Amino acid sequence: MLDLTDKKALVTGIANNRSIAWGIAQQLHQAGAEMGVTYLPDDRGRFEKKVRDLVSPIDPSLFLPCNVQDDAQIDETFQAVAEKWGKLDILIHCLAFAGKDELSGDFSQTSRDGFKQALDISSYSLTRLAKAAKPLMTEGGSIVTLTYLGGERVVPNYNVMGIAKSALEMSVRYLAAEMGEQNIRVNAISAGPIRTLASSAVGGILDMIHHVEQTAPLKRTVTQTEVGNAATFLCSDLASGITGQVLYVDSGYNIMGM
Ligand code: NAD
């Protein structure tokens, strides 16, 4: 049964009500998980207030600042999880960033700093969060991250983020191989294009969405709730034999030749 009662779930990457992470958090909550939420802090605290108000209906028992480029904040986050819950069952890694300049035009123009930043935030962060989560997943666990088709095929303008997603997907496999012995499963969901803050930075995203609506077998894009349902499945006992995989939640778009 898809029942997450007694499970403790930490969700990263909620920025607003369009965030995929918000779709996931709502479905995990509905399945009975106790929720913890992290947000990206900013100097004026605007994000904190916005995210706090948004997530109040799922009543998170942990609400923590966590910039994944800051090791101290990551360690403080998992210290707080240890103190509050004494364990962790579910970690949702649902964040990425690349500068807008890097997400249009020729890929060969990618800057060294832009490359480092995109790979650090969008790929390395999974490994760093998994490292911090591992000792807390004493009863096994499930780690889920979000990827996109642009990590395995060329999608116009996705550029350095495609490289970051490719590294992310390989990190899923290495982490799954390492952590399987501890019954920690690590998987990725490859979501179809959805209008969010992050996707709006990718040049031509609306054309991509339109293309999917015309081409994908289901003739539509997917919703945050559909991605949330798939993530909830991956975190449940129904998925107990699944690790190291990329699950497509994209209306079937990835199977099409053109
Ligand atoms: P979003 O803008 O709602 O979420 C991105 C999140 O990343 C935000 O909450 C932001 O605060 C967070 N973030 C950025 N830099 C951070 C940092 N240094 N530390 C901590 N958090 C940081 O957009 P989204 O589309 O919901 O993106 C969530 C994930 O889904 C990303 O990995 C994205 O690549 C992936 N994805 C999105 C789509 C899509 O079309 N929207 C498709 C496939 C995969």
TrEMBL record:
What are the protein's GO molecular function terms?
A: enoyl-[acyl-carrier-protein] reductase (NADH) activity
Its pathway is:
Lipid metabolism; fatty acid biosynthesis
**EC id:** 1.3.1.9
Q: Which UniProt keywords apply?
A: Fatty acid biosynthesis, Fatty acid metabolism, Lipid biosynthesis, Lipid metabolism, NAD, Oxidoreductase
Q: Does the keyword Amino-acid biosynthesis apply?
A: no
Q: What is the protein's name according to its record?
A: Enoyl-[acyl-carrier-protein] reductase [NADH]
Which amino acids does the record list as binding substrate? A98
Q: Name one Pfam family in it.
A: adh_short_C2
Q: Which NCBIfam families match?
A: PRK07370.1
Q: Which GO terms describe its biological process?
A: fatty acid biosynthetic process
**Binding, NAD(+):** G13, S19, I20, L95, K165, I194, R195, T196, L197, A198
The record's comment on protein family reads:
Belongs to the short-chain dehydrogenases/reductases (SDR) family. FabI subfamily.
Q: Which residues form the active site?
A: Y148, Y158
Reaction catalysed? a 2,3-saturated acyl-[ACP] + NAD(+) = a (2E)-enoyl-[ACP] + NADH + H(+)
